[in-house]
Design brief:
Blueprint: H1 8-19, H2 25-30, H3 43-58, H4 76-84, H5 90-104, E1 108-114, E2 118-125, H6 135-152, E3 158-162, E4 181-183, E5 189-194, H7 206-213, H8 230-240, H9 249-255, H10 260-269, H11 274-292, H12 297-303, H13 309-320, H14 324-331
Parallel strand pairs: 3-4
Antiparallel strand pairs: 1-2, 2-5, 3-5
Length: 336
């Protein structure tokens, strides 16, 4: 995975948000010395770093005036992160973040919800009229997830992610950041994961936080390099296989030199299961084929291993809430 992945729609939304408040984006970027070529993988990273930093301070608001409440004074993230690294474990750190931001801001309210097996970090916004491109929504969701992963020194395996706005045309851009079930049109933002992560110790300290803050806030948009986990290995094997011939749990286990029972146990420890991973891979492949390839839905169904187009359409609607034709019409220039 590239160290420099930033969803392309974020850069455009960021430029539009700053320009809406009279900030000359072109002048800001011209001040950046040795800006790499537009085709360089570092380009979007440095552009977002410059624009986010400038936006925070020129607008005097870490919400970039995208919230419906009072501005969030620059420095809020600095104080929140310093409180979080002194927590004993991830669960306490996320509770600290929820309490802190609920106290200092009134545009959105975070909370940690936990049951026996699952945990969800949820953010409810009090309005969206100032955030037409959902930039604040994406930034909050990605930012809290990235920072939580950084605190424990590994990328947290997500079971699902929820967005408080309709499914966008650029949903495919979230596949790298959120390779899990993605729900839209919910009344809150949320990322969910195994509750086992909440017990993990905080691995960072004042020195590592100081180094991280040097790149703030752009690091929040860049996936941290994950520790190689078993669900990642499984996903790579499934992605590399022809969709019509996806290997079984036993075949994947053999490929990884594990017994079927050992693989199942390790996946459960990471809060996922084989069928869910397989379903997500098929959904991502289906989404890419519908958006990026001018082939019929019947052909896509065949490529995905469905014997009948109707069966594929029913499964796809169960996954996304839309039929393949509706999904394609809303996101692609290709017509069925």
């Amino acid at each position: 995975m590239s160290n420099y992945f930033i969803p392309p729609h974020i850069r455009g939304a960021l430029c539009e948000a700053l320009e809406a408040h009279g900030i000359d984006v072109e002048s800001l970027l011209s001040e950046v010395s040795q800006l790499p070529g537009i085709d360089s993988p570092e380009y979007d990273l440095l552009v977002c770093h410059r624009l986010l930093q400038a936006g925070w301070y020129l607008l005097d608001d870490e919400n970039l005036l995208l919230g419906d409440g009072k501005p969030l004074k620059p420095g809020a993230f600095f104080y929140a992160s310093n409180l979080m690294i002194n927590a004993p474990n991830l669960g306490e750190a996320l509770n600290v973040a929820a309490c802190f931001y609920s106290y200092v801001g009134d545009s959105w309210h975070p909370e940690l919800s936990v049951n026996q097996k699952h945990a969800s970090f949820r953010v409810r916004r009090y309005g969206q009229k100032n955030d037409p491109n959902h930039l604040l929504a994406d930034y909050l969701l990605i930012g809290f997830y990235q920072f939580a992963s950084w605190l424990i020194g590994e990328r947290i395996t997500l079971t699902s992610v929820s967005f408080d706005y309709p499914r966008p045309k650029h949903e495919v851009e979230f596949q790298t950041l959120f390779p899990c079930r993605r729900y839209f049109d919910r009344d809150h933002l949320e990322f969910s994961f195994s509750a086992n992560y909440l017990k993990q110790d905080i691995m960072q300290n004042a020195a590592s936080l100081a180094a991280l803050l040097m790149t703030s806030p752009s690091f929040l948009l860049v996936p941290q390099e994950p520790t190689r986990k078993i669900h990642t290995e499984v996903r790579h094997i499934l992605e590399a296989s022809p969709t019509t011939e996806m290997p079984s749990l036993a075949e994947v286990a053999k490929n990884l030199k594990l017994t079927t029972k050992m693989l199942g146990t390790r996946l459960r420890k990471e809060g996922v299961n084989f069928n869910e991973i397989k379903k997500n891979v098929r959904l991502d492949k289906a989404s890419q084929l519908l958006i990026n390839h001018n082939i019929s839905i019947a052909q896509i169904a065949e490529k995905l291993g469905f014997e009948e187009t109707a069966a594929f359409s029913k499964a796809f609607k169960t996954w996304t809430g839309e039929t393949p034709a509706q999904y394609r019409k809303a996101r692609s220039s290709f017509k069925e």
